[in-house]
Design brief:
The complex is a heterodimer of chains A (503) and B (305). Chain A is an alpha+beta fold and 503 residues long. Chain A has helices spanning 2-21, 55-64, 111-122, 157-161, 169-175, 177-180, 227-235, 284-293, 296-302, 333-342, 363-376, 388-396, 415-419, 434-444, 449-466, and strands at 35-40, 69-71, 77-79, 82-89, 92-97, 135-142, 145-150, 190-196, 200-205, 218-223, 241-242, 259-263, 268-274, 308-310, 350-356, 380-386, 403-409, 469-475, 478-482, 485-486, 501-502. The chains are: A alpha+beta (503), B mainly alpha (305).
């Protein structure tokens, strides 16, 4: 009996050891020739390009799937699977398609694939629905021409299609969508090789790529959720490229010539929304006072480590229609107090200020700083933090306010998406001015990009003066790039490796 | 003995039912999964449509009964985010978590039990002081901090081990040691206290008096009698570790269950949250049950009603 017990304990220990040692040992990918490793803080939920709508997800899926158009590093729209487009009338677009392109499984790319992809995105339960919102129908005119009809003029169709990877219809029908979600097949520069969920995703170069075979043979996307651990992996040389570099860790790589930090101007605009329909915030002078009261430069410099661009309105510089002539509200506490006094609030007023904690870069600290500045101006803001899930729920139901912090980004990089937050009759706006609304409605129906941009630029000074928001800053995109990798970030945050090289 | 086993089994099942109710209730108060699933640009109509498709517009009791019936068949539904069966996602993470948990526990036990015994035998001497210091540091240092320091020293500066991810044995070392140190702290303290309780007992003096070697006195008489609480503790620790070590898994990018649970909670992926909670609870309940059985078996003196 005694020996039985000892034997059992020993067997248990042996079992535990065996479990520890007996795991398969996959080959190490670190620094292999022709291999580039990218680390991100999140991985795609699925590799079905229509189901995955996060930036970290697009960074992976757009290596495998080509969209119809893309932006080049200079920001110009370039044809990809489309060879060109024609606007037949304001609600009808005709796309001519590239010939001779094949999916990775050999299935030919043609009008049927485009029709299939857009129609699948149009399904009500498709997360990609927002990309084709307003599209009425898709028709294959001939094997290499597709006609898209929209309900109203839809100028944003083109930039939004840049996030829609074209999928092979026959493959979907044969294998089913849930199989495709883990075995993606596109026309893109990289083919899918393997995916160890929650760990790494491996792609190999598509040597038959219509745009020329990529120089980098293997791309590994690793998931490293902890920002400090991601920077550590970058510093050790295990990974060549990291996204969402923690700003406070940037100094840790400053003295290493092998490691570079690359930044974009930022497409995510962080702002303090004001409910202009209630209380003191109905008065324009009060809203202007709040803009003068907050030292945005100091917030960006001290809290964001300089990795933000102070904005004059809520339209970031990377968007079509940005007005470069406007200068951000200066920090002027005396003027703020004077404006408050003029509006009849010489002693300020109490108000509720809501903020998420942990969703955006240093959001909690930024809110705290803003509340401090408001208090200095006499506005006694009561700061309340919320967990993101509840916060976004309240945002959606229009329950936030009267003052709250929120971020917004336009996938299409078009000022229309930003200006929607100050337009009339929509759930995500807390402001309405009929005069501005008329200009906005006209602008967003203008298909020609230059003329649309000109109209956006006319709207911004009015929004600036009306101050329906405490305009804050655009969060810069920060990347860590190993010097052996030749890659530059794009302002639209596209991470495309087909044209990159390694030393 | 049979009645004892039966009663413990019944209790385990009841606990699982309770947990299923709590898991269900909790996941319905933490927020709406639909608004996180869709982008900001989506309108309220699209949200309502999605809610209907996911069955979230039905009354809560109906949703619970449907959930329970399906869960008994191992069906937790499809992950809202990943569109694949939720339980499958959980089971995929089991090998990684088991590998980390078992290695960490082996390290913890291998470190803590001998050190705890030595500390008790040499009370208030240097080895005892070192052991107590280790135990205090091990439990008070946050694992994320210790993990990051280990990564910086052994991964970035010395480059002995990879900074994270799963792979061969070298990938396992840092996370297992960090997690093991944390577990060891508690086991060490308990081993020391249990041994101290036993060491002054009369039968040990008798054993020594009749001329037994010290190793036999400690190993056969003292440790055997001190082992009951230690075994219980280790059993519970194994149950906890197998549920996923959230912080260690996150810092070391280890693809285990703990991280899956956190991701699912942030994404309001209700089916996955429920699957992972119930799975981890089952593991814990099973580990507790096995510990109880082992306890009864190790200590034949006690008769259970």
């Amino acid at each position: 009996m005694k020996w039985a017990r000892t034997a059992m304990l020993a067997a248990g220990l042996a079992l535990a050891l065996a479990a520890a040692m007996g795991s398969p040992i996959p080959p190490s990918h670190a620094a292999a020739a022709g291999t580039v490793t990218v680390a991100q803080g999140a991985e795609p939920a699925t590799l079905d390009p229509l189901q995955e709508i996060s930036r970290t997800g697009y960074n992976v899926t757009l290596q495998i799937y080509d969209p119809l158009f893309m932006r080049n590093p200079a920001g110009r729209i370039v044809p990809m699977l489309a060879s060109g487009y024609k606007i037949v009338n304001p609600t009808t677009w005709q796309f001519s398609l590239r010939k001779g392109v094949k999916f990775h499984n050999g299935e030919p790319f043609d009008a049927a694939a485009v029709k299939f992809t857009i129609e699948r995105a149009m399904l009500k339960d498709s997360p990609s629905n927002y990309l084709v919102d307003g599209v009425k129908s898709v028709r294959a005119v001939d094997p290499y021409t597709v006609e898209v009809t929209t309900a109203d003029p839809l100028p944003l169709l083109l930039p939004r299609l840049m996030l829609l990877g074209i999928a092979p219809p026959k493959y979907y029908q044969e294998r089913g969508a849930s199989y495709v979600a883990t075995h993606p097949v596109g026309t893109g520069p990289y083919r899918f090789q393997s995916w160890v969920k929650d760990d790494r995703l491996t792609l190999t170069a598509n040597h038959d790529y219509w745009g020329g075979a990529p120089s980098i043979q293997t791309v590994v996307f690793r998931l490293i959720p902890d920002p400090a651990a991601r920077v550590a992996a970058f510093r050790s040389g295990e990974v060549d490229l990291i996204t969402d570099f923690a700003p406070d860790l940037v100094p840790s790589v400053a003295n290493d010539p092998r490691l570079k930090v690359a930044v974009t101007t930022g497409t995510r605009s962080i702002n303090i929304m004001l409910d202009t329909q209630t209380g003191p915030l109905r008065d324009k002078r009060v809203r202007q006072a709040l803009n003068y009261a907050v030292d945005k430069d100091t917030i960006v410099k001290n809290i964001l480590g300089g990795f933000g661009t102070v904005e004059s309105t809520l339209v970031p510089a990377a968007y079509l229609g940005f007005n470069p002539r406007l200068k951000p509200y200066a920090y002027d506490p005396a003027k703020a107090k004077a404006l408050l006094a003029q509006a009849g609030y010489p002693n300020g007023f109490p108000i509720v200020f809501q903020s998420p904690r942990g969703r955006y870069l240093a959001d909690a600290q930024v809110s705290q700083a803003v509340v401090g500045y408001l208090k200095a101006a006499g506005v006694n803001a009561d700061l309340k933090y919320y967990e993101w899930g509840n916060y976004v729920n309240m945002y959606f139901k229009h329950q936030l306010g009267p003052i709250f912090l929120i971020g917004s980004a336009s996938a299409a990089l078009d000022a229309a998406d930003a200006l929607e937050n100050v337009s009339c009759g929509v759930w995500d706006s807390w402001y309405c001015n009929q005069g501005i609304q008329a200009m906005y409605t006209k602008a967003i129906a203008t298909v020609q990009p230059d003329r649309r941009a000109a109209q956006y630029r006319e709207i911004q000074p009015l929004i600036y003066d009306e101050a329906p928001i405490i305009f804050m800053y655009a969060q810069k995109g920060i990347y860590g790039v190993n010097a052996r990798l030749n890659w530059t970030p794009q302002d639209d945050e596209t991470l495309w490796l087909a044209k990159s090289t390694v030393k | 003995m049979e009645r004892y086993v039966a009663r413990r089994l019944l209790e385990a099942v009841l606990v699982l039912f309770g947990i299923s109710a709590v898991a269900f209730a909790l996941t319905h108060v933490i927020g709406d999964p639909v608004v996180l699933l869709l982008p900001f640009q989506a309108g309220p109509a699209q949200v309502a449509e999605m809610r209907h498709i996911l069955g979230l517009d039905r009354p809560l009791p109906v949703q619970y009964l449907a959930f329970l019936a399906a869960a008994l068949h191992g069906d937790f539904g499809l992950s809202v985010r990943q569109n694949t069966p939720a339980l499958g996602l959980v089971l995929d993470r089991v090998p990684a978590t088991a590998e980390l948990a078992s290695t960490a526990l082996v390290i913890a036990v291998g470190l803590a039990v001998p050190l705890g015994i030595a500390a008790a035998l040499h009370r208030r001497r240097a080895v005892d002081r070192v052991a107590l210091l280790f135990s205090m540091l091990g439990q008070s240092m946050p694992t994320f901090w210790l993990g990051l320091q280990a990564i910086l020293l052994f991964g970035v500066v010395l480059r002995w081990f990879p900074t994270g991810g799963m792979g061969g044995f070298r990938h396992l070392v840092l996370p297992a040691v960090v997690l093991g140190i944390f577990s060891a702290a508690g086991i060490l303290r308990l081993t020391r206290t249990s041994m101290l309780d036993i060491i002054s007992e009369d039968y040990l003096r008798t054993a020594r008096a009749k001329g037994l070697r010290e190793a036999a006195v400690v190993g056969r008489h003292a440790l055997r009698n001190a082992s009951l609480p230690i075994v219980t503790w280790i059993g519970l620790e194994l149950g906890t570790l197998l549920g996923g070590a959230v912080v260690t898994e996150t810092v070391f990018a280890w693809p285990g269950m703990g991280r899956l649970a956190v991701q699912a909670i942030f994404a309001r992926d209700i089916p996955v949250v429920q699957a992972v909670v119930l799975f981890a609870a089952s593991i814990f309940v099973t580990a507790t049950f096995c510990t109880d059985m082992l306890y009864a078996w190790l200590d034949p003196r006690i008769h259970y009603q």
